[in-house]
Amino acid sequence: MPRCRPCWVSDRALTGLLAVGLIATLILGAAVGPFALSPATVLAVLAGERSDPQAVAVLLNIRLPRVLAAAVVGAALAAAGAAYQTVFRNPLVSPDILGVSAGAGFGAVLGILLGLPVMAIQMLGFGMGLATVGLVIGLTLALRGGGQVLMIVLCGIAIGALAGAGISLVKLLADPEQQLPAITFWLMGSLAGAKRADVAAALPALLIGILPLLALRWRIGLLAMGDDESRAMGVDAARLRVLVIACATLMTAAAVAMAGVIGWVGLMVPHMARLLTGPRFDRLLPAAILIGAGFMVLVDTAARTIATLEVPLGILTAVLGAPVFVWLLAKGARAWSE
Amino acid sequence: MERVTPLIEARGLAIGHGGRALITGIDLALSPGRVLCLLGPNGAGKTTLFRTLLGLIPPVHGHVALSGQPLAGLSRARIARHIAHVPQSLATPFAFAARDIVLMGAAARLGPFARPGPAEAAQAMAALTRLGIADLADVHVTRLSGGQRQLVLIARALAQDAATIIMDEPTASLDFANRITVNEAIRNLAQAGTAVILSTHDPDQAATLGHDAILLNRGGIVASGPVREVLTAENLSVLYGIPVQRDERPDGRLHFY
Description:
The complex is a heterodimer of chains A (338) and B (257).
Chain A: H1 11-31, H2 39-46, H3 53-87, H4 100-113, H5 118-142, H6 149-173, H7 179-187, H8 196-215, H9 217-221, H10 227-232, H11 237-259, H12 265-277, H13 281-305, H14 313-330
Helix pairs in contact in A: 1-2, 1-3, 1-13, 3-8, 3-11, 3-12, 3-13, 4-5, 4-6, 4-7, 4-11, 5-6, 5-11, 8-11, 12-13, 12-14
Chain B: E1 8-17, E2 20-30, E3 35-39, H1 46-53, E4 61-66, E5 69-70, H2 76-82, E6 83-86, H3 98-103, H4 118-130, H5 146-159, E7 164-167, H6 176-191, E8 195-200, H7 203-209, E9 212-217, E10 220-226, H8 227-230, H9 233-240, E11 246-248, E12 254-256
Parallel strand pairs in B: 3-8, 3-9, 6-7, 7-8
Antiparallel strand pairs in B: 1-2, 1-4, 4-5, 9-10, 11-12
């Protein structure tokens, strides 16, 4: 008889393995680059033992902020994707479904058009991402959809389309010499130039979003059974779903504001995690967070090393993601559906 | 004689959506071990009645009480400790293991931040064992037959530890063998003291399993009372709009055709 999940490894052991893998990935990411450092050097600098000033400068000012930013973005997108898929009971849902990426994208390109400083661009993106989903939820309530899944998704598609139109309009109005390339590059996603301040700004949003999800993760999993069923089992489904959407949106908006629009991670990483853990959200979420963080660090390391020019992350995640996704499907992603 | 508080009771209940009554004047009361069957054509309001009894939608008029406590004042978790629901089918796209579905029954007793522990796992296994499907604990529900899935959902209701279980057409779309198995499970539940409310399209099933029956039509209640009095050829002919015959076999069992 087919089993639900690999039985040879316990939850705790799996989490431990994935955490070790993530740490190894972070060290690798911090070591690789134009000024190559050995993993031993990375560890030594982090431990404060070696003080080759150049290595310290590269590591602390350039590499470390960048790999940490990648880890934060990957963890946020993967956790948000896992949460959205569970809450909307649809394995094909990604964090973009309610228009948060489109909204955050519109805010950021507007900021570029207005010539705002980088921090203000990110704030505007973050704010617009939240506002978009807020508008979607508000609209759903105003239409007396009562927080119903279909209503939320349809409103999300409508508002997301509006934000997409806004992005097109900004592109049309933008100066084709200076602003348009910046906008295009930003929309494809990049962590080039990620600084410690960026990580410091995104980390609270990640934690505020991720901690409630982790604390409530078993109960959130019951939402996968549908509204009436989860309510009949004693779950306040409507309220819990709004909380999950709020948390996932906060994380996604913070990730998009910092790194631009990066597709596929939020859709694909939960599937990879589900192959290891099965569909139970309380097992899925920690695995998705760790895999998402590690995956993003690897992708970003590749983005800045495989060519002399930085490859936009959105292109890489799609190029890597699509074949992996098809392979998962072909392999029969049984933990998703038969 | 002192009146025993029923596990679930409805008085003067009118059910419907958006304040518009679909059916009025529903009275019912169940004590432990009783089985109430709901019969009626599709769209008669059986599911609406179930959703009202589960507190998923408010009644248009009247009230429901669970062990004497008004339903309207109870939280979702409190309601779930009184009454469990067995849906017609599993509505999730994810391939959960049977064990994990049954484990969800513990939600009503666990705090919001809690995860099920060894006690809940043991209870889930006990429920699976009681229904004779312990060997299916680790199998994906997507790999189970319709009948096995129904048993998993009944096991989840058992793990919820509620005194009353509502079942929405538990044997619809099941093959013969599975229907027998599920019927047997329902009978055992009732004998162990659980009150059961189930809907069915099969008067034979109502006659074999039920103590009481309510016949619902789009116009309202056709008849209500003990099964033998309610399931008459005349009532069923009115209910389904075609002539129905009733036979009583030598062993006392009723048969409709």
